Amino acid sequence: MIAHVRGRVAAVTLSSAVLEVGGVGLELMCTPGTLATLRTGTEATLPTSLVVREDSLTLFGFVDDDEKCVFELVQTASGVGPKLAQAMLAVLSPDGVRTAIATDDVKTLTRVPGIGQKGAQRIILELKDRIGAPTGRVGALPTLPTAPWRDQVTQGLVGLGYNAKDADKAIDAVADQAGDAPDVGVLLRAALRSLSKA
After folding, report:
1. Quick check: 3 and 47 in contact, CB under 8 A?
2. Is residue 137 part of a domain?
3. Where is the stretch described as Domain III (predicted)?
4. Which end of the chain is more exposed for a tag (fewer CB within 10 A), N or C?
5. What percent of the chain lies above the pLDDT cut of 90?
6. Which of 19, 44, 61 is the last residue of a domain?
7. Domain housing 87
8. Which domain CATH number covers 170?
9. Distance (Å, rounded) from C-alpha 177 to C-alpha 71?
10. Whether 10 and 57 share a structural domain
């Protein structure tokens, strides 16, 4: 088990980051919020979760241990794999997930692409006694000062299963929230909310 990775950020893509550790570049799949905290060329330490499949080894990286714990816990619910767990953390903060499950908030969980009404009810039923109380931490994410936020949000939405046309509509709907220093994680969540209303 790889508990965490520390190294120089060699690259940040739209869905992953590459950290150079001892001359080896490790690719970590991350949520937009986690990616927004990373800068190429700087040192970073990310808690990680290794998902082993018959045909692949996938390393997921997180902004903190709390996000990692929620990622691993929600996968214990039937029908929730690593991609869906990551989508939950792309839309909701760890406390948002805890609150939705603790308060039987099916509507909030169905905002996550890939979770329907029955899936949300099953997740609540299976995890309610194990998810724990919200920690009360505010998930404020650093802003990302680069201009191509639209491409990053589009890539994030397409990666979560939306088509490019719907992604463009959602981005247009949230463009006024971008401001001078757009935060990709916040904008992606806003775009997902607008898609869930449509």
Report:
1. yes
2. no
3. 145-198
4. N
5. 56
6. 61
7. 65-127
8. 1.10.8
9. 28
10. yes
Report pLDDT digits (tens) over 177-194. 777 667 888 888 888 888
Indicate whether 133 belongs to any domain: no
Report yes or no: 68 and 34 within 8 Å, Cβ to Cβ: no
pTM greater than 0.90 (yes/no)? no
Q: Would you list the DSSP string of the chain?
A: ---EEEEEEEEE-SSEEEEEETTEEEEEE--HHHHTT--TTSEEEEEEEEEEETTEEEEEE-SSHHHHHHHHHHTTSTT--HHHHHHHHHHS-HHHHHHHHHTT-HHHHTTSTT--HHHHHHHHHHHTTTS---------------STHHHHHHHHHHHTT--HHHHHHHHHHHGGG--SS--HHHHHHHHHHHHHH-
CATH number of the domain to which 111 belongs: 1.10.150.20
pLDDT tens, 98-115?
Answer: 999 999 999 999 999 999
Residue 139 inside a domain? The answer is: no
